[in-house]
Write a structure and sequence with these properties.
The protein is an all-beta fold and 274 residues long. The chain has strands spanning 3-7, 14-18, 35-39, 45-48, 57-64, 71-77, 81-83, 86-88, 92-98, 101-103, 106-108, 112-116, 125-127, 131-137, 143-145, 159-163, 170-171, 181-188, 195-201, 205-206, 210-212, 217-224, 226-228, 231-233, 237-241, 251-252, 256-262, 269-271. Strands 3-25-22-27-19-18-17 form a seven-stranded antiparallel sheet, with no helix packed on it. The chain has a seven-stranded antiparallel sheet with strand order 4-5-6-14-9-12-16, with no helix packed on it. A four-stranded antiparallel sheet has the order 2-1-28-21, with no helix packed on it. The chain is globular and about 60 Å long. The protein binds fe (ii) ion.
C-alpha cells in the first residue's frame, strides 16, 4: 500500500495516509467509476428521456452509478421542450449552464440552481429556448404527473431556485486554502454534510500542494480553466473522484468558476511537495 506524508491544516499534524486504498464492500460504496478528467463535449450525446416525461432531449452522461442510476448528465433541452407539473421518485439537482428553465413560477436562468427532493411537486417545466443544464438525480428517476406533493416528501429541503450570480461570495471553508479563491454554497445536506457549491478563483491563483479528501468530489468547469499535472481543465471539463485519491496541485492562469459537489462534509488534507 502506498502512503504519503500529509499535513492537517487544522492541527498542523503530519500523518501517513493511504494513497491507493483498496475499496472493500461495506466501506464507502465505490459508486461511479473514477473520472479524473474529461471534456464533456467529447462525450457521446444520446436521447435523454425520463420515464413519465414524453418530450425528448439530448444528453451526455458524464458519470453514472451502475447500481442505483445516480448520474450527472449534461442535458440539451431543445426550444419548446416541456413537461407537466409533477414530482420525481428521486432527489434532483439542476444547474443551468446557459438558456433558462421555467419550473412553475421559478425561472432558472444561466448559473441558477435547484434542488427538488423526491416527491416534491414542481412545474410545469419548459425550455423556451435551447438550454443546457447539469441534471443530477440521486438514482434513476421516474416522473409522476401530479398536482400535489407525494406523501413522505421532504418539502422543507426544497430549493426551488437560487440565482448564483446574486449570491455574495464567501470565504472558502478549508483552512489554509490559498488566497484568491472564494465560495458560494448552494446546498448543504443537514444529515450527511453533502454539499453543492461554486468555487471562484482569480487569474494567477495557485496552490503548491496536492490534496486528498475523505469524501467523493465532483466538479464541472463552468468558466475559465484549472491546470494540474493532468493538463488544463477548460470550460466543460469534468471530474468525478472517489475519496482518498490524491490530486493537484492546481493553478489557474485565467481564473475559473467551478461547480462542485461532495457526498459528505468536505475536509482537505494536503500533501506537501517533496
Ligand atoms: Fe479537491
Amino acid at each position: 500500500m502506498d502512503s504519503r506524508l500529509t499535513m492537517s491544516p487544522l492541527t498542523g499534524e503530519t500523518n501517513s495516509i493511504e494513497t491507493n486504498p483498496t475499496y472493500r464492500q461495506g466501506d464507502r460504496p465505490m459508486g461511479r467509476p473514477h473520472i479524473e478528467f474529461i471534456q464533456s463535449s467529447e462525450v457521446e450525446s444520446d436521447v435523454w428521456q425520463i420515464s413519465g416525461i414524453a418530450a425528448k432531449a439530448q444528453a451526455r452522461t458524464l458519470s453514472r452509478d451502475p447500481g442505483n442510476g445516480a448520474a450527472t448528465e449534461l442535458v440539451n433541452f431543445p426550444a419548446g421542450w416541456s413537461a407537466p407539473t409533477g414530482y420525481f421518485s428521486t432527489d434532483i439537482e439542476v444547474f443551468v449552464l446557459d438558456g433558462h428553465l421555467q419550473i412553475g413560477s421559478y425561472r432558472l436562468k444561466q448559473h441558477s440552481y435547484a434542488y427538488i427532493p423526491a416527491g416534491v411537486c414542481s412545474g410545469p417545466w419548459e425550455a423556451q429556448k435551447v438550454t443546457n443544464a447539469l441534471w443530477m438525480p440521486s438514482a434513476s428517476p421516474q416522473f409522476i404527473a401530479a398536482s400535489e406533493h407525494a406523501p413522505g416528501n421532504r418539502l422543507e429541503r426544497y430549493i426551488p431556485s437560487i440565482d448564483s450570480s446574486a449570491l455574495p461570495w464567501a470565504g472558502t471553508i478549508t483552512p489554509g486554502f490559498p488566497p484568491g479563491a472564494m465560495r458560494k454554497t448552494l446546498r448543504t445536506d443537514p444529515d450527511t454534510g453533502a454539499s453543492t457549491w461554486l468555487l471562484g478563483v482569480l487569474p494567477q491563483w495557485r496552490d503548491y500542494r496536492a490534496e486528498i479528501h475523505p469524501v467523493i468530489e465532483e466538479a464541472y468547469v463552468v468558466l475559465g480553466g484549472l491546470t494540474s499535472l493532468c493538463g488544463t481543465m477548460t470550460q466543460g471539463c469534468y471530474f468525478w473522484r472517489p475519496a482518498h485519491i490524491p490530486h493537484g496541485p492546481y493553478a489557474s492562469a485565467t481564473g475559473a468558476l467551478v461547480f462542485f459537489r461532495s457526498d459528505g462534509s468536505l475536509r482537505t488534507d494536503y500533501i506537501l511537495p517533496e
